[in-house]
Write a structure and sequence with these properties.
Layout lengths: L1 H17 L63 E6 L9 E9 L8 E5 L7 E2 L2 E6 L6 E8 L6 E7 L25 E6 L7 H11 L4 E4 L3 H14 L4 E5 L9 E5 L6 E5 L2 E8 L2 E6 L8 H14 L4 E6 L16 H10 L4 E8 L2 E5 L2 E7 L19 E7 L5 E7 L5 E2 L8 E2 L2 E2 L1
Parallel strand pairs: 8-9, 9-10, 14-15, 15-16, 16-18
Antiparallel strand pairs: 1-2, 2-5, 3-4, 3-6, 6-7, 8-19, 10-11, 12-13, 13-14, 17-18, 19-20, 20-21, 22-23
Helix pairs in contact: 2-3
Length: about 425
Amino acid sequence: MASAAVGACVAVAVLWVGQPPPSRAIVGPPAAPAVHAPPQTDGAPDAAPTVDAVTSTNGAPADPPAATTATTGPLTASEPALRIEAEPDTLRVWTNTRVRLRVHLRQGQPPYDDYVWHFEDGSDPVRGAAVDHTFAESVRDRHVTVEALRAGQAPAVVSRNLPVERLAPAALDGEEPATSPPHTGRGVRALFAMQVPANETVAAVARAAGAFQVAAVVASGDDVAMSALADALAQAAPKAALFRLQPDGDAQPWLARAADPAHAWSEVQVGYRSTGVWSSGDVAIVPMDTRPEVLAEPAIGHMRAALAAAAAYAHVVVVAARPLTPLRDGELASDRAYRLYEYALRYQATLVVSVGSEVFYDGRFGGVGVASVGRTTAHDCARLLGSEPCQPASATVIEVGDKRRWRAWHLLEPDFGRAVPEADFPREAGKVRR
């Protein structure tokens, strides 16, 4: 009987997860543009959508309340018959955490005959009204379920999440750390525009950022182009932050915040040490300079430390100068790229975005999602590995959402308003598969 009840709860949870989340605005910008695309599977991006006009989110339905919430004090008649109390109520990052769990009954509720605890981490169930359990090192939230058993009655089943602690963003250059509320939309979007020229392309990139309601723009270009892009974003996407990427320069850090009018992004620091990781809400952007000439052991150690610092966030986007595996004809990957892949896999990065291949493509490399960003201005011929046509100029929008899901839109010049259909991409490019 207890197994049937747990199965029913899991079935309900699966049905809920399978439903699309309510349409709400992401933190910072207003509503995301309506898109039409088939559902995503296995973490791979959806097919390229067509973008409609942006619609207002006024009156949008609120998210349903969580199934269980942590409370304090005695339970009232309007609350469930029992709840789970935990001490501590958060888990340490990459550290074993011993948690004391106990059942708290509503006032006047008679005790149950027995309690069976399920930790969903591969361990055996444990019985008792109060138990101890050690959760192995992790970077993800854990889930606890208890069955309260009474003879002749169906078991009462209660669950609770134990979240992993988050590293608090540190103040930078005298600013206050960001205190953005959690993101509540379908996902958080960032636009990537590489080699932006100082011409009318700047205005087109800014308009695309506004149309997709992105939270951040990651771009490369000279000083004039970056200054013009910051001004254009202030008009077309006034809440979007601008990060300048210098994948071929010697400046450190090579991902620098150029503008953040909403003060939504902060650099993550561990103690007094800078990590180079930028965070907003539950999203972290990790820059990794993967050029072969800089991949010495100290550089790899720094990248590993940055990934470890970002692992406490639900969505980790790694921005790499070179891909983990070649995506362009004649391209060479670093001989240490597989070590970087192992780190991205271990620290559960959502995806790795490469910005140096000058071609656009997205899919999966082993157990990690990967996306490659093209150029915003066409020169010479950039060919995707194994294909004949030259790729046109483009910008890329990437959205990360729940369950480490993500999708990408590769937008074509001149106005970056049309996305490349998924059917136009080959099923695989080298070792990357869609």
